[in-house]
Amino acid sequence: MMQHAALKYRPYPSVPLSRRSWPDRRIEHPPAWCSVDLRDGNQALIQPMSLTKKLELWNLLVEIGFKEIEVGFPSASQVEFDFTRHLIENGLIADSVWIQVLTQARQHLIERTFESTRGARRVVLHLYNSTSTVQREVVFNMTRQQIVELAVKGARLVREEAEKYPETEFRYQYSPESFTGTELDFALEVCEAVMAEWGASAEKPVILNLPATVEMATPNIYADQIEWFCTHMKDRDAAIISVHTHNDRGTAVAATEFALMAGAQRVEGTLFGNGERTGNVDLITMALNMFTQGVDPGLDLHDINHLIEVAERVNKIPIHPRHPYAGELVYTAFSGSHQDAINKGMHHYTDFDHKLWDVPYLPIDPTDVGRTYESIIRINSQSGKGGVAYILENKFDLKLPKEMHPEFGKVIQAISEAEGRELKSDEIYQAFRDTYINAHEPYDLHTFHVVKRHSDRREQHSFAQVEATLENSGHEIAIAGNGNGPLDAFANALQEQTAEKFSLRAYHEHALNTGSNAQAAAYIEIETEDGKRFWGVGINTDIIIASVKALLSSLNRAATN
């Protein structure tokens, strides 16, 4: 950066709040949610939504469960006006839903706004004017008194217009735009003047929306501003304190959460944070943050992929792959240690039927938002043995022995490094088959027969005699042997009638599926004469044949490594 460039900026002043209480509070219930996607979000788009896209987004917002939806700025454009009329004239607004419309404190705009809502059941009439120091002095060249008079005049016009539409239940909302850039005492003065003009009371409170139109300080400062405002009001119960934060500093979610702790009751924002500059507060993140703390947010977010699909289509803005809760990669682990921890945590959660979610690296159960466990582990050159094992078990029902994980993990790591990319689940499975199942050199099983088998439980003695034909480097050979069981007999025959010298170190087996055609998987580890160990795998409907194939698989791996 340019030398001394930071000197042209000054730190935001602290709020004179000596006994702040918000840091000791927690969010225990959801706020009233108001989506401003159709207005604030729409005006931030390179290509604003058409009527059709607005309707699609409206339907999604209703489906999610929003009871307050800002539908537009009807006096600003014909599309905004027409959309509001379309909702009303076609009976698309449920009685439980309030539509919100925005207007500046100017007479012709106020009148046009009321025209757009004619016949609506419930309307939040949102009035605003800018109150910040810099806007007063630089943009409008107005005094404090003139700003107050402008706001009160607008409030009076709103009240007088509302009386012309007795069929509609109106709720008044006032925003001192750029609240964070306004002196606190002046912001309170303007708001109380508007409240007085509207006759606000505990029985009929008005909404005071205190926006961080531009995020200018750390989140704790905004919380201090909200608590100062709430504790200095004359008639606190005559107002619903609402917040509307932007994300200029990247802390809109934190600022809004702190504001709720400081006394705010209502939150305006957008799905996935779409909005001007760096965006509005992200209502999805806000709601799911509460959800992870055991608080029902009151919004239906069970199918987050559907929300993403609609939002991306109407906004023409992709959701970042690392976006909280919604991104493509947020339920994914590439790191080997993370994968192993997730794998163990998932098993612990399901095997012991825990009621409370507590899985490493996953603050939320992906299934709660419509994701699946299959997407948790993805494999690249940074991945570890645990992640590879997780993919094989959860997608292909192959439960590799833990001792086998390092061996196959190295196989996958080598492939990923050579390819220079992430490996898909099917590619991992194919690599497993190529490594263990499809390896037929130098040994390939042609036939196998158990000639005799005897077991005496009283004497705890067993005996088996087997015969087999193998292809060994292009030549067919016949072998036969005796042992404690079929696998032991086959191993003895190999060592006695070929040049192979090995010892069996580990054996595992499990069923792959159920039914008349159920298969079984067998895993065998051998140790060769030089002390090296190799795993082999066999799959067959007959567990004995699967075991024999697993032994040959381990010998084939030893011969080629």
Can you walk me through this structure?
By secondary structure, the chain is α/β, with parallel strands linked by helices. The protein has 3 domains: 284 residues, Aldolase class I (TIM Barrel, Alpha-Beta Barrel), CATH 3.20.20; 100 residues, no CATH class; 118 residues, Double Stranded RNA Binding Domain. The chain contains 17 helices and 14 strands.
Key structural traits:
three-stranded antiparallel sheet, eight-stranded parallel barrel, 3 domains, 17 helices, Double Stranded RNA Binding Domain, alpha/beta, 561 residues, single chain
**Helical region count?**
17
Indicate the CATH architecture of the largest domain: Alpha-Beta Barrel
CATH classification class of the largest domain: Alpha Beta
Morphology call: elongated
Give me the side-by-side strand order of the main sheet.
1-2-3-4-5-6-7-8
Termini gap = 55 Å
> How many domains?
3
Strand content: 15-25%
Low-confidence stretches: none
Mean pLDDT: 92
The helical percent reads 25-40%
Find the CATH superfamily of the largest domain: Aldolase class I
Structural class: alpha/beta
CATH topology of the largest domain, what is it called? TIM Barrel
Number of strands: 14
CA-based gyration radius: 34 Å
Q: The biggest beta sheet, please?
A: 8 strands, parallel, barrel
